[in-house]
Sequence to fold (294 residues):
Amino acid sequence: MAHVDDPQTQRANLSFIKASMREPLLSREDEQDYARRWRSDGDEEALHRLVRAYTRLVVSTAGKFRNYGLPMGDLVQEGNVGLMQAAARFEPERDVRFSTYASWWIRSAMQDYVLRNWSIVRTGTTAAQKSLFFNLRRLRAKISDSPNGRMTHSGRQFVSTELRVAVEEVEAMEMRLAASDQSLNATISDGSEDNWQDFLADSRPDPESVVGDAHDSDTRARWLHESISQLSDREQIIINERRMVDDGATLEELGKKLGVSKERVRQLEHRALGKLRTALLARTDTPGDLMLES
Fold:
């Protein structure tokens, strides 16, 4: 679905475009001078002059992306971000015009914006996917390959060769571009009051299961507490500090605390776990996850 600017935004965009067209172009010498003054001296006025002279380049590039259904104002804003990045990174000592350098940054910023907003599903994350997204329609039109239907195998091979990507990548992108986002709040048909989201399965447990699970959990916790209370003092210390906390104490630490060897702690722990199993089995035939492993 296309995004449409409101009238006030459209007027602001038109004013910006007209102002951009009135800015004089810079000579190579002026570009170099402003770039050096900004890079070496932090001269913000020089930066502003450099950027303002090429806002027309932003407007021109934005026009090439209008067919993706996104607001012109947003495209221009993204392009201005790319222009500022170009001004910040431009190296005047290199033998290249600023306009040429900035074009890449402006186009890249707009492409990223289109990919982020064209669909709620991420469309292109790799260089190959981005190339396919922005060139597939053009290449299909070039070979007149079923513009309103599925591509032929030879058509996919042609695109694959032209863009140097796998045929499988071409087919995957073709399917993505053919599908459109659909709101779950949309009705399933004209005249219907039912939305698509009404037919989504709810994977959450029902209230009865929630109450039952909470009751079972409380019961198991009580059984475990009662079973541990039947152990000796040393056994309770070992179980509580070794098994009832996430970062349990080591055998060596407990040995020092209880004044016994590590091996003795291990023996006491093994005996305590056996007592717990017996106590829990006396309360239920299926202690389940309450069974403590040795």
Summary: The chain has three domains: 1-118, 121-180, 207-290. The chain has 13 helices and no strands. The CA atoms of residues 251 and 263 lie 8 Å apart.
